[in-house]
Amino acid sequence: MLGGAGTAAISFSMPALAQQSAGRVVVVGGGFGGATAARYLKRGNPKLSVTLLEPARRFYTCPFTNLYFGGLRTFEQQGHGFDDLRKLGVQVVHERASDVDAKGKSVTLAGGKKLPYDKLVLSPGIDFRWGALEGYDQAAAELAPHAWQAGPQTTLLKKQLDAMENGGVFILVAPDNPFRCPPGPYERASMIAHYLKTKKPKSKLIILDAKDTFSKQGLFQDGWKKFYADIIEWVPRAKDGKVVKVNAKTREVETEFGGKHKAAVLNVVPPQKAGAIAGRAGVTNQSGWVPVKPQTFESSQVADIYVVGDATIAAPMPKSGFCANAQGKVAAAAIVETLAGREPPKASWVNTCYSLVAPDYGISVAGVYAVDEGKLIEVKGSGGVSPREASDDFRKLEADYGVAWYNAIAQDSWGTVSG
Amino acid sequence: MLKICIRKGLMHRTRVSLATLLGLGAAMLAAQPAAAQTPADVAVLAGSCANCHGTDGRSPGQIVSIAGRPETVLLAQLKAFKSDTPPPGTTIMNRIAKGYSDEQLSALAAHFSKIGANAPASAPAKKRSK
After folding, report:
1. Does the beta-carbon distance from B99 to A383 stay under 8 Å?
2. Residues in B touching A405 (Cβ below 8 Å)
3. Which of A43, A323, A342, A350 to mutate to test the interface with B (most CBs of B within 10 A)?
4. S-S: A36 plus which of A53, A325, B60, B128, CB 3.0-4.6 Å?
């Protein structure tokens, strides 16, 4: 049909195709971005043929695994299946996409099969720059977990935490920007400190940071002072916090100016890049991330490939599950309209991100985003973080809304509230 | 908690001074550029609400459902969030509502009021131009 065409302009001459199928869309990755894109493609036009490629039968979200470390949730509660998307008519294939032929417009599955597409959505998440931090490769991650992709890494870190003696030192190595979930390391520190405070009160938690500032910093530090003054120590880069070498076997790390630290449990959040399939598709640039056209999230390098979520360069939007979901909807709407021969709709996004500092103490950051003169912008006057001065009731409400948010977005993405 | 409060004064004020109009104009400029919105535009605009309020504004949990509520109620609430004195108990909606022009808020209120099923038994939302 359109197989050999390979250019964006062709997608407007679709009436012949519309007779059988309104178009074939393949979505790679079943996380917040991909699951949402698949759902909203089908909602936007049920006649579209939509195939979702996701190796896992059950997808575990990174968001809310910090509460698992804190002992407030089970790991399974972050798991989501794909039955609801199937019910909607999405073909869910549990295979890995191993390659993309952007010219021939097909995706190759790990088993060798090729899937043709008119439009492709990549929601590949992140991969790690193994070795960019000396001593930290895949083998090292089995000893000093990153737990920055939910799965066996998450349960491994929890096991190590559970096995740690009372009085042990937990070290969290935080990366430089950009990385998945900017407040994530600091919520993790909070939740692990909560666990230590309640179960192993003689223990300490040290954050060795490659940065001097971080997301929701004032709010986190207020909370740490209130709840974990004797437990959490944050070491910014300016105070020699940047880790440059890891010895995963001995759980020792070395910092920029020669500082040495030994941990009982070592959690390294390493430098990152877009998920590997993005590189195969030719949509990444030298930074390792994916530049996109803000209006549609179509790759600015390869026509008919849309990329959403953490893999993209979408600043000022952060790399969050909320943004991946919001971008998935914008890309889906653009694809639906474009395949029908209409202009893509006006883009609009929100981000809301809750972090839990203690069981009844939540904080948030929000932002509203739009396109202005071809650039992605945060709408002036919108957004910002929770007030520094707030009542206990306010913090409790934000803690509760965090959970409510998770259930709402999980339902909006996978159709399931909680595992 | 997040009570829907209609401020009668706000709703039925028909005479607006020139200064207020100018102020409103400036506020709209400060937000997003206003232009005609197609149904697809509004659907995208509304898409972000689902992330907390549930798909189509039907909430699965503690955050309020917004589907099927009267348009006037939704709009009054959104405008109250956007104002400099948001309703008591507001946590995050003031920060979000300030990201939208009044025209966009009107479009969102109309959009969610028309999504049915769980609509309250009250009279159907009246069409109301600003």
Report:
1. yes
2. 51-52, 63
3. A350
4. A325
pLDDT, tens digit, 9 for 90 and up, residues B67-97:
999 999 999 999 999 999 999 999 999 999 9
Instruction: Dump pLDDT digits (tens) for A288-319.
Output: 999 999 999 999 999 999 999 999 999 999 99
Q: Which of A349, A353, A360, A328 is nearest to A405 (CA)?
A: A353
- Tokens found for residue B108: 């969102």
Instruction: List the 360-419 stretch of A: residues with Cβ below 8 A of B.
Output: 364, 366-370, 372, 379-384, 386, 394, 397-398, 400-401, 403-405, 407-409, 411-412, 417
ipTM of the complex: 0.91
Are B95 and A400 in contact (CB < 8 Å)? no
A308 closest CA partner among A277, A286, A330: A330
The pTM of the whole model exceeds 0.90: no
Neighbours of B21 (CB within 10 A): 10
How much is the pLDDT for B4?
41
A10 half-sphere exposure, CB direction, 13 A CA radius: 15
pLDDT band at A419 (very low <50, low <70, confident <90, very high): low
- Retrieve residue A273's tokens: 């890049």
Q: SS3 for chain A, per residue?
A: CCCCCCCHHHHHCCHHHHCCCCCEEEEECCCHHHHHHHHHHHHHCCCCEEEEECCCCCEECCCCHHHHHCCCCCCHHHEECCHHHHHCCCEEECCCEEEEECCCCEEEECCCCEEECCEEEECCCEEECCCCCECCCHHHHCCCCCCCCCCHHHHHHHHHHHHCCCCCEEEEEECCCCCCCCCHHHHHHHHHHHHHHHHCCCCEEEEEECCCCCCCHHHHHHHHHHHCCCCEEEECHHHCCCEEEEECCCCEEEECCCCEEECCEEEECCCEEECHHHHHHCCCCCCCCEEEECCCCEECCCCCEEECCCCEECCCCCCCHHHHHHHHHHHHHHHHHHHCCCCCCCCCEEEEEEEEEECCEEEEEEEEEEEECCEEEECCCCCEECCCCCCHHHHHHHHHHHHHHHHHHHHHHCCCCCC
Distance from B3 to chain A by nearest Cα, in Å? 14
Does B24 contact A at CB distance below 8 Å?
A: no
Is residue B123's pLDDT more than 60? no
